[in-house]
């Protein structure tokens, strides 16, 4: 492995520099650059997290705290000495920049484009610009890449949703109420209740949250908030997180498989939202990638296999990296596990209602459960607590699990849950959770993005959104159109395909793989919880066997 640029520059800082946009609005930016003469590549981000808001990292971060740390952005004290300028921009209507805040919008992408081109012509810049950052600072990268700014030479979207409908706001057509509403209102509070900046008196005044709830179908209004994969041609290093189910994983894998770029890499790690980005191993890869594309240094990174995966073996410890040549893996043995009910008197102490078996049941079976997912207040959709308690309620719905596995079994890749369902209501919300159960019947948890406990992976679908896009759907990854509602008729049996977000887990010998199907959020959902349909008062039914053989399509990876 070849090393990247070595530290040799001192730090200079230009505070509150004005960037004039095409419509005359002036955004405020901070420039961290090498001191003295010379021209250097620029690393730029733009967002609403306030460039002047200091982030004090946890003590176990592999970057030391310093006065220049900013949430989800690069550390200038590491990058500037290695010959890069770091440009932090307060997006329109946030921090010290005036205007109307509209995160993840076409307007924000246009502003980002202008900031990139402004950076490229500054006397300290070599003319080569890259985008890099986590989450918000990754999501905006996909959107500006749609516009193809000529000075953008590479980007590192680290844990970045790319489709503000499918990845962010509506999972399977179900609104991600817990995260979307709390995220927006939290940052409104940072601006209006925290240390206020009078430069942006209109901060967060747009009916942004209302817009997301009002537009509950993907019929055109999200176009400017979605990656247009055929237009994204810049070289990129896409980094997802196995623990990022509900926000930061799907966009990164979709980018690698669908973007038009001829030079792209995929990395998927695990754990929190911030530790992996600042790890020494990660910074080395980031530097080698940017040195190659912005400085023309042969670091060897583009000669390595394009896919780098952290292979999870359960419990968050001692995971190992593995290189692959493609995604999904070419050697995948796509394996169907069929859902089959078991008799009430044969159910185990874990109280599962069914089993997962590789043999398709010949006889038709069915399991029926309450569609309401009742809270302690009963069916009380008018109460705010019915959503506040999402993800913390007792087990509901039905569960299926395998027999104890006879050997270590690796599942790595996309997952498709094909169900035959019916309901006494006009619609049906399906919340699917895959869990790793040890020989004692306990969950083997992973470390989530917010340091919370999370299961293996999840998927969601509102049955009325079951229409597939035939051009984009794959046997292992259904792609839903979300452009019309196909209501259920009482008692009608319909097939639905639930997109389970990609995963990687080696289920150890003696462990079981468990599948929960519920009418509301299951275990390990917070903070990515949902507003389930308030008309779901009745009964839902999962059909199995015969001509209605529901199954879970899993990407099994042979040991060889």
Summarize the structure.
This protein is an alpha/beta fold. It has 10 helices and 25 strands.
Description:
- This protein is an alpha/beta fold.
- The chain folds into two domains: 11-304, Rossmann fold, CATH 3.40.50.1820; 333-557, Jelly Rolls.
- It is built from ten helices and 25 strands.
- The protein has helices at 76-79, 106-120, 136-145, 164-169, 177-192, 208-214, 250-258, 275-278, 280-295, 385-388; strands at 11-20, 26-34, 40-47, 85-90, 125-134, 152-158, 170-171, 174-175, 236-241, 264-269, 307-311, 320-324, 333-341, 354-357, 365-370, 398-401, 409-423, 429-437, 446-447, 453-454, 457-462, 494-507, 512-518, 539-544, 551-557.
- Strands 13, 14, 15, 16, 17, 18, 21, 22, 23, 24 and 25 form an eleven-stranded mixed β-sheet that branches. A ten-stranded mixed β-sheet has the order 1-2-4-3-5-6-9-10-11-12, with helices on both faces.
- A hairpin with a 2-residue loop joins strand 7 (170-171) and strand 8 (174-175).
- Helix 2 (106-120) packs across helix 3 (136-145).
């Amino acid at each position: 492995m070849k090393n990247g640029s070595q530290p040799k520059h001192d730090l200079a800082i230009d505070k509150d520099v004005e960037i004039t946009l095409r419509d005359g609005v002036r955004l405020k930016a901070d420039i961290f650059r090498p001191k003295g003469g010379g021209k250097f590549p620029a690393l730029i981000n733009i967002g609403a997290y306030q460039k002047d808001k200091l982030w004090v990292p946890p003590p176990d971060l592999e970057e030391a705290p310093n006065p220049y740390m900013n949430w989800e952005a690069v550390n200038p004290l590491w990058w500037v000495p290695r010959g890069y300028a770091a440009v932090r921009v307060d997006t329109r209507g946030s921090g010290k920049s005036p205007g109307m805040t509209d995160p993840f919008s076409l307007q924000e992408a246009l502003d980002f484009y202008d900031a990139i081109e402004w950076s490229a012509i500054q006397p300290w810049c070599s003319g080569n610009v890259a985008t890099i950052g986590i989450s918000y600072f990754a999501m905006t990268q996909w959107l500006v890449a749609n516009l193809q700014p000529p000075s953008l030479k590479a980007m590192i979207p680290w844990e970045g949703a790319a489709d503000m409908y499918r990845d962010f706001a509506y999972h399977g057509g179900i609104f991600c109420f817990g995260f979307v509403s709390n995220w927006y209102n939290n940052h409104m509070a940072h601006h209006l209740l925290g240390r206020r900046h009078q430069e942006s008196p209109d901060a967060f005044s747009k009916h942004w949250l209302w817009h997301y709830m009002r537009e509950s179908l993907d019929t055109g209004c999200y176009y400017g908030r979605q990656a247009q994969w055929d237009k994204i041609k810049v070289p990129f290093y896409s980094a997802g997180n196995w623990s990022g189910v509900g926000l930061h994983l799907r966009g990164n894998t979709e980018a690698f498989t669908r973007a038009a770029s001829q030079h792209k890499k995929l990395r998927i790690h695990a754990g929190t939202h911030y530790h992996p980005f600042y790890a020494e191993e990660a910074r080395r890869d980031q530097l080698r990638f940017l040195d190659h594309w912005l400085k023309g240094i042969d670091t060897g990174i583009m000669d390595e296999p394009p896919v780098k995966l952290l292979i999870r073996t359960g419990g968050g410890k001692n995971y190992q990296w593995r290189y692959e040549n493609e995604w999904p893996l070419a050697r995948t043995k796509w394996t169907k596990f069929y859902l089959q009910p078991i008799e009430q008197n044969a159910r185990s102490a874990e109280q599962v209602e069914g089993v997962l078996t590789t043999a398709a049941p010949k006889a038709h079976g069915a399991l029926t459960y309450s569609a309401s997912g009742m809270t302690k207040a009963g069916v009380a959709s008018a109460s705010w607590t019915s959503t506040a308690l999402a993800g913390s309620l007792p087990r509901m719905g039905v569960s299926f699990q395998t027999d104890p596995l006879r050997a270590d079994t690796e599942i790595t890749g996309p997952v498709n849950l094909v169900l035959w369902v019916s309901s006494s209501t006009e619609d049906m919300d399906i919340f699917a959770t895959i869990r790793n159960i040890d020989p004692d019947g306990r969950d083997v948890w992973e470390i989530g993005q917010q340091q919370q406990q999370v299961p293996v992976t999840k998927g969601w679908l509102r049955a009325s959104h079951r229409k597939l896009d035939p051009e984009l759907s794959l046997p292992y990854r259904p792609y839903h159109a979300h452009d019309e509602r196909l209501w259920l008729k009482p008692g009608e049996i319909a097939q639905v395909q639930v997109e389970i977000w990609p995963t990687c887990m080696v289920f150890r010998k003696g462990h079981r793989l468990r599948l929960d199907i519920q009418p509301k959020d299951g275990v390990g959902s917070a903070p990515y919880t949902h507003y389930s349909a308030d008309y779901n008062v009745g009964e839902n039914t999962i059909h199995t066997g015969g001509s209605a053989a529901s199954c879970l399509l899993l990407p099994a990876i042979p040991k060889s």
